Amino acid sequence: MKMKVRSNDFTYKGPALRIAAQQIRPGANHLRAAKYLQGQLHTIGIESTIDLVEASHLSSSENLAKYDLFVCGILLGEDRLLSLLATLQSTLYTIYPTVDDRTKKIIDKKVREIRLSQEESIRWIKYFEIEEMLKSMHAIFFLNHRFHAVYEPEDSPYEGVQLDSNGRVDYRKVWRRWDNKYRI
């Protein structure tokens, strides 16, 4: 989503916004996304600074008080909905600790409804209701659903091609099948 170019009717006169970009491990962070957000803010006349913050410290009370915006991501497990529900209510992430008590009660109620529902489609509908509510409250911005996939032809001579927990192929585990069909 692109922000509109600066309007002459709007002028932000406050201090520069502080953006925390999640540092997952050295070299793996959300700095690029934070810089994109910073550029969008600059376009509409809002200055900002960016700090890399260790993922394990992101939702500390000190950092929640220090930063205005958080740019971070989550890795979903096999059961994506269960991972999302755990994230919504976790104090390790920045969503739940930053919303007011009324919103926490709504989230908790919807999550209970999701857990009690037998119908998968109803569960997802209720989850997206929570997500829409959080977006409308500006508790989450630029929410992006993305996943990693690897496409391998059925007749590929390679075996062991699968994604690791970081969404990368571990090439040390890939091997080439040796049979007459694939001789070079």
Automatic annotation (TrEMBL):
Gene3D superfamilies: Dipeptide-binding Protein, Domain 3. SUPFAM superfamilies: Periplasmic binding protein-like II. It comes from the Bacteria. This is Uncharacterized protein. It comes from Sporosarcina saromensis. The lineage of its organism: Bacteria, Bacillati, Bacillota, Bacilli, Bacillales.
